[in-house]
Protein: Dihydroflavonol-4-reductase
Amino acid sequence: MTDRVLVTGASGFIAKHIVLQLVRDGVAVRGSVRSASKADEVRAVLRRHGCDPELFEPIELDLAQEAGWQIAARDCRYVLHTASPFPGRQPRGKFALVPAARDGTLRALKAAREAGCERVVVTSSVAAVFYGYPRDDARVFGEQDVSRIESDAISPYAVSKTVAEEAAWAFSREHGLSLATVNPALVFGPALDSVLGTSAMLVDWMARRRIPFLPDVTFGIADVRDVATAHVRAMPHPEAARRRFIVSGGERTLRSVAATARAANPGALGFAPLPIPSGLVRAGARVVPPLAMLAEEVDRIKSLDTTPLRELLGITPRSPEVAVQDLVESIMQYGRS
Structure:
């Protein structure tokens, strides 16, 4: 068994940082991509940061197809499964994203088991941790908490992440496969090229003062570099098996994120976003059902326990302000696509 690592979804925002960290350390990476152009994106990132692109071996895989997974995991010591659907707009069906997220995760785990890989680290989310619980601002959510998919106040994305992670844990228990998950909050931090993900686009619009209104919503914010490091350190750590690592640098309101983004892009013209009254959001939820998920989050703080991240993996998370500032600066450096 070599030290080669399979990284699925290698052209994604988080995955590019993981690939960069691994290759920078001299680790050979086999990365799944959807197309040759996506493989070129990853190679370009490696060259830009002075790393050897020959250490990156792309392989085309589809979350919805069986073909290629066994070949992808062959001769790999570890599998880091980051690939998962994250649409810019949520679909209408509550379980619409489940098949791709769950079945893709199980394909990665089955391939890892058949290849004799030592461990799989799955990129999950805090969306699989804290949805569907009664409002209680004193509560701190930790690795033992699991989102309640039966709740009306849970998005299709959160349902997909919860179901996929629960399926991964069931597979791990049944087959004795060593597993860890990384559960980041809303992920910001520097982009490595001009290809922006859904979360990064939100900050881009804030920095350019293109969002006129924001509800009073608070989110945990994770820096993508900390998320990547959590994957890399959880991969070989003997005590990381059967653990969930929540990654967050702290909770911030959307309006404070917007203020940080505007400060990092002082040349932008426009106004600070105005608050949307919480009562208006709740009233709208009675007429527009998808707003129920947003209404559940207004005027609410969900605190996160990052003790395993700090004490076991030795990671002190960067602050949300650093994550937002560095994202805006990277957007200005690389432009937008």
